[in-house]
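Fill in residues.
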């Protein structure tokens, strides 16, 4: 027969057990990493789990936006359930454990910092030295998310992909000259490509491409960008700053003129169906991310992709540290592991990217990567899209609205 004392003793045991279990779940020396599905090859995950000193739990989400929303959810205050006071053992469970590291794309980094969703990363110099200086500089930001050479380190990349031009080899193989198709972005303006191109439907990418055609850089000309180590190590004189500001004012008209040249070439602006249009032979070429191109290249033998020689626009998958967490030794080990040649090679021969460590000019390139026929020189000439200042965002919005009105873009 169960009496009141027995029931109270059992309840007390349940409370203590639940508290210990909750404590164990959150502080049980388990490394938790939130990944985008397919971003890291399973062979890399399995190898690290086998050699790690602590248990490792990899969790995946289907897209980057979900990872960003997870960071937001972790920072939202918990809503107290009034029924918990009648069930004291529930109070010991606490909030769900925050992961130690999260994979985030560079596009979301500025907002993650501005919304205080992540922490600066105190990565030991010996580990950070594995990453080329250019890519370290991209992760140094101020508290608003803008790049700052003297700022704290908010992210580190483990994989890069680039914009590529993908085309049908059979449609270009009969050309009389030996020049590889699309060795330059200017080749998009060739007369025989009228209404023959599909482009992404992203304003920043289109405007950045226009900038590349006009200035040789995907990024705005500005004193801040020109003085940044990710682009230039040379400080600007005051006279040079004034000159750049004048150039930026003139550039808007030049970009509009450049778009007048590009627009007749484009049949489709659609990030989701550009590849489908190429496969269906509705267009002769498409500008897409290399990860998307890689999937199509495996299925359709007539397709080829190229990074133009002067470089392309890069996108980075990065590790960030959620707000309220400390960078554990296990997390440091995982970051370092991804930059070691073996795992970095596996990341690079997988369909969706290349490790940044192989874009250092003095880095020895494994044969497995050389066989992928990637143009490493072109990738070394490539650049990440820098975060835009509020004034530049406004200028982009105005310029895009003008293009939309005049050319009926969506």
């Amino acid at each position: 027969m169960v009496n009141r004392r027995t029931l109270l003793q059992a309840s007390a045991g349940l409370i203590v057990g639940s508290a210990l279990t909750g404590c164990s779940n959150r502080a049980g020396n388990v490394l938790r990493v939130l990944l985008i599905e397919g971003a890291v090859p399973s062979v890399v995950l399995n190898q690290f789990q086998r050699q790690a000193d602590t248990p490792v739990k990899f969790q995946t989400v289907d897209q980057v936006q979900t990872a960003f929303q997870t960071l937001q959810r972790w920072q939202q205050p918990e809503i107290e359930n009034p029924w918990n006071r009648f069930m004291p053992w529930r109070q010991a469970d606490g909030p769900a454990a925050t992961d130690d590291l999260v994979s985030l794309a560079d596009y979301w980094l500025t907002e993650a910092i501005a919304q205080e969703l992540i922490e600066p990363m105190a990565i030991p110099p010996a580990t950070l030295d594995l990453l080329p200086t250019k890519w370290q500089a991209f992760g140094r930001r101020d508290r608003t998310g803008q790049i700052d050479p003297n700022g704290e380190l908010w992210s580190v990349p483990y994989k890069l992909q680039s914009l590529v031009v993908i085309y049908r080899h059979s449609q270009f193989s009969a050309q009389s000259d030996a020049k590889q198709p699309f060795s330059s972005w200017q080749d998009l303006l060739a007369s025989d490509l009228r209404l023959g191109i599909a482009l992404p439907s992203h304003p920043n990418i289109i405007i950045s491409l226009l900038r590349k055609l006009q200035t040789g850089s995907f990024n705005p000309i500005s004193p801040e960008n020109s003085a940044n180590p990710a682009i230039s190590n040379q400080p600007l004189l005051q006279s040079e700053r004034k000159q750049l500001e004048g150039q930026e004012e003139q550039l808007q008209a030049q970009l509009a003129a450049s778009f007048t040249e590009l627009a007749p070439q484009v049949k489709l602006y659609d990030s989701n169906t550009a590849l489908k249009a190429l496969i269906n032979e509705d267009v002769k070429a498409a500008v897409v991310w290399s990860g998307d191109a890689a999937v199509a290249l495996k299925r359709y033998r007539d397709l080829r992709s190229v990074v133009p020689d002067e470089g392309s626009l890069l996108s980075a998958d990065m590790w960030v540290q959620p707000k309220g967490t400390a960078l554990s030794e296990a997390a440091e080990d995982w970051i370092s592991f991804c930059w070691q040649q073996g795992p970095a090679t596996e990341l690079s021969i997988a369909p969706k990217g290349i490790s940044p460590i192989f874009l250092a000019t003095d880095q020895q390139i494994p044969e497995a990567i050389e066989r992928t026929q990637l143009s490493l020189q072109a990738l070394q000439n490539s650049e990440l899209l820098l975060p835009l200042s509020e004034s530049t965002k406004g200028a982009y919005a105005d310029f895009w609205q003008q293009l939309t009105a005049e050319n009926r873009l969506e």
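Residues 31 and 331 are 7 Å apart (CA to CA).
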